[in-house]
Task: structure prediction
Amino acid sequence: MALSFDDRDGFIWMNGEFVPWRDAKVHVLTHALHYASGVFEGQRAYSGNIFKLDEHTRRLFESARILGFTIPYSVEAINAAANETLKRNNLVDGYLRPIAFRGSGEMMGVASQKNPVNVVIAAWAWPSYFNQEERLKGIRLDIAHYRRPDPMTAPSKAKATGLYMICTISKHAAENKGYADALMLDYRGRVAEATGANVFFVKDGEIHTPVPDCFLDGITRRTVIGLAQKRGWKVIERAIMPEELRTFSECWLTGTAAEVTPVSEIGPYRFTPGEKSRILMEDYSNLVNGIQPALAAAG
Result:
């Protein structure tokens, strides 16, 4: 039986100090619990190094700025706290979750300017986001009912807690039907992303991926684009319509949790994990583990 996340050994960094894992608690009238006034990051550590830590931390600060609050620490202090959290929990490979949110204070309504901002960092051992056997042969995706919202209706450039409500609903619905995840369209009906990862396709040897104009331009997404370009592969960022899915040969997801995960099915559409999926999985694994990709192997 898996351990509950509120009942574990270890330490969590909370507002400038380390507290025992089971004592890291907030009040039930915390503003973020009621109004989703929080932002977060997902980070992975490999061999004791948190991959692109500074880039993740700076995105956390930018997300907070978009939501209208200030994180009461410097980027450097949060980076140091993340590294120390990894060490305090005796981890060399693991997942980290920094989160900043409006806490409980003088105000308990939509407005919360006077409430303190809390910052927390937890770290734990976490294997592949998807079942490893399923991941190697390609995971299956449903097509979600909910869509990524218009940027004029939600802060789509922030990694904000509230934006993931429709992701949880969509992933649960997909899993209830036997799928691993769901592909989400955007408010215009274009292909957007999975519930927590960006998506790529291959057609005639070229890589295609949606323009992230109403969802996050993921750090892993940008990393994988860079790896593909180093291989000399053309990457095209453009609007992709659902009916185009039948024209693609390969598909994969990218994200800190998902890393590079091949896809074999999206609703009625089928894909075969192939050379590009395999090579980018290997190149990404090499990169995060400090091994230079053998570019000549791709031809």
Q: What stands out?
A: The longest strand covers residues 94-102. The radius of gyration is 20 Å.
